[in-house]
Design goal:
mainly alpha; elongated
Length: 114
């Protein structure tokens, strides 16, 4: 394999990993901001009120159901992108993907700071 193809592959992997990690950590605070008021918080409510708990005994299963229905599939796809691409890159390039792991961590930190 020539160096040009390997370089393009590395940049494409790096870009995809950065974007997926950034989006992954953007989704977490957004959904938390939406559902926390229903479970004893003071933030504004933005989700469908039909998910709002009727009693405060044990909302664990209701929270799990709400998160599964609203962001379950997109969150699962975003969270598996980085490890999958790092594995593919390591096999194709023949080197350890530690720089891609660091890039993923940087994107996560930037998303949380934003």
């Amino acid at each position: 394999m020539d160096r040009t193809a390997t370089g393009k592959h590395a940049y494409l992997c790096a870009f995809t990993i950065f974007v997926s990690a950034f989006l992954l950590f953007q989704v977490q605070p957004i959904i938390a901001k939406m559902i926390l008021p229903w479970f004893r918080s003071v933030l504004p409510i933005l989700s469908n009120p039909s998910w709002k708990p009727t009693d405060a005994n044990n909302p664990s299963f209701l929270i799990l159901g709400l998160l599964s229905v609203t962001i379950g599939l997109p969150y699962m796809i975003l969270s598996t992108t980085s490890p999958l691409l790092q594995s593919w890159y390591a096999r194709r390039a023949g080197s350890a993907p530690y720089r891609l792991f660091a890039l993923s961590s940087l994107a996560s930190m930037l998303a949380l700071l934003s």
